[in-house]
Amino acid sequence: MGKKKNQKQQPSASKDDLLNTLGDFTSKENWDSFFTIRGSDDSFEWYAEWPQLRDSLLPRIQQHPSPSSLSPSSSLRILVPGCGNSRLSEHLYDAGFGDITNIDFSKVVISGMLRRNVRDRPNMRWRVMDMTQMQFPDDTFNVVLDKGGLDALMEPELGPQLGTKYLSEVKRVLKSRGKFICLTLAESHVLGLLFPKFRFGWNVCLYAIPQKPSTKPDLQTFMVVAEKESSNELLQIISSFDHSSLACNPNQASGLLEALESENQIRGEYLSGSDVLYSLEDLQLGAKGDLQKLSPGHRVLLTLGEQGVSHFCYKAVLLDAKQQSGAFSFRCGVFIVPKTRSHEWLFSSEEGQWQVVESSKAARLIMVLLEASHANADMEDIQKDLSPLVKPLAPADNDKGNQIPFMTASDGIKQRSVVYQGSSSLTGPVVIEDVVYENTDDDVSHSLPFRRLIFERTEGLVQSEALLTRDGLFDKSVYGAEMKKASSSSKSKRRGALKRNNESSSKMKVYHGYLASSYHTAIISGFSLISSYLESVASSGNRVKAVVIGLGAGLLPMFLHGCMQSMQIEAVELDPVMLNLARDYFGFTEDKRMKVHIADGIQFVRDYRNLYAAGNEVLLSSNGSCKLSDAESRSTAIDIIIVDVDSSDSSSGLRCPAADFVEESFLQNVKDTLSEQGLFVINLVSRSPAIKDAVVSRMKEVFSHLFCIQLEGEVNLVLFGLCSESRIEEDCIPDAALKLDKLLKSEHPEISQSITDAAKKLKRLK
């Protein structure tokens, strides 16, 4: 058996003709035809011939540990799978190894080989058998010798399914301290299956078989020897040759060396205790202890399923509850995380995963993280596919009569229609969708639609969310009941299964007088901390200057623009695509009191601070840069700076803002840019207490006083830094909130009341 035509060693034209009978190297019919034409007397050696193999192969077989009093022929049982009509087993027999069994699924070749050897080698056994479904008991052979069999099964177009089944059979039929000797061209896709299958409990060595003298580099044969150890120890793969002296085809050499280096790197990470993926097979071999026993605080990353065994492959995390003494609802459970939520800190970080375990009430939780390959699968089909895969992961004391329960992270979306799908070079893929949520409030007779802005780079995190009304107008008789419902937090709602609907009414438009996001409500409620200053500015006929870094859909600036007539708003947005989307899909507009600057927010503040610190008046240009103003420019002090941006890299656990916005240098520039009564507001999204504590600690170093609002049931923490040395006491905040309420010109008492109520949750961080 062998490889594809363009990878064969081809000594003669006659071989080329014969190879034309083979299209699929896994087809029994093709091999029958090949051996019928070839005949049994004329052997066909795909790879290195006996003179090249002998000196490398015989020592590997003879090194097998056996009683010294026994000769090789009486002590070793050798299996040659996919034997074909090669003379390899005949040479071994003649070298003294008399207990050899040859199998091939071609009846034609087995019949021919039996006739060829029945007289000279009467003890040699020949059986028609599929090497992927061997009919031998466990622990039967001391040596399994493969010459091209695995390579033939690993046709790239067919994937690893047959190779996986074959190697499982090899491992099953080998005795303890037995050896799998694989003669192979060592292509990367073959080694990519072979090396991982022989990790725990196997000692693997790699040898290069000498080539015939040749004028040009040819494909070389390599020998992988995997010895079945009595322990589950993990060892590095040892190669017996100088990597720099390989004289084979350069592509073959580079592919082999890359595969070897990659595998040894993975083994090194295993040995160092790094967070790496284990296979179920590794775990069943004891790679991370006894899988049948619960081990408090035990956490293992693993893969479930493989081609030919399940419909899909899955990445999963096995977690044993840290405290095993509590009352559990079940001994073992499965928690499925949709692709749209798998990147969230709660599910992607170790700290977050332990929070899920605690809330699940499971002694052992198997968290399965879905990926793009599962996008079109029904959740019921996913559960059916997973059921047999997770059963071996249940602890021994799990009630075998009970099904392992499945749980799923949901988003509560009843309807969804995509109104825009595109991409930006800065932000990446962007989706705008109209949704209707599940109605869980019996007092509300109908659910209203919302429009949401989503960045695919932060899947599961909704950037902006707005109420849709007919023509963007508000009819209290229609929408009044909905206004009484608790506002939702747009930067914590999650996406569900995607459904396209092109029937969205063009008359439904964004209504800017409603705050759909509770964190927007919290941001505005923090203005209560400087409400006396805001009142004095308004009464003097001047304008409060506010800078919002992060435009998004423009909903917060538009609400402020409509409710605070004395406010001049400057929005800073890095991505010009966002400005166009805000205009086209969220009704954002600019005027004398509303300007947008396409600029980097950190650089914008730094430039502004440098000019302001020099005592110059500042004029903001349309491209976000700062320059000296003319005599008509007003005062340069900024009264309010709001940072409301997401992080393009959430791997650190910080979803909002980007890490640069909470560095001390930026915070100091913000303070230097603000007026004496200025207010800095930042929306912080992280489930990590350690990250939150670090940000709070930095802000305390910079700002005179620090307040916060922790949104109930959400991960958002809104922080407020005050520049003024004088502080407002917490018991004075309700009165300050009432003063702010008078400044806000909201058309809806419900919105004003929600802002006032949020202000009462302000807490001073001492």
Automatic annotation (TrEMBL):
The keyword Transferase applies. One of its GO terms (biological process) is methylation. Keywords: Methyltransferase, Multifunctional enzyme, Transferase. CDD domains: AdoMet_MTases. InterPro entries: Lys/N-term_MeTrsfase_sf, Methyltransf_11, SAM-dependent_MTases_sf. It comes from the Eukaryota. One of its GO terms (molecular function) is S-adenosylmethionine-dependent methyltransferase activity. Transmembrane segments: none annotated. This is EEF1A lysine and N-terminal methyltransferase isoform X1. The lineage of its organism: Eukaryota, Viridiplantae, Streptophyta, Embryophyta, Tracheophyta. The gene is LOC107935986.
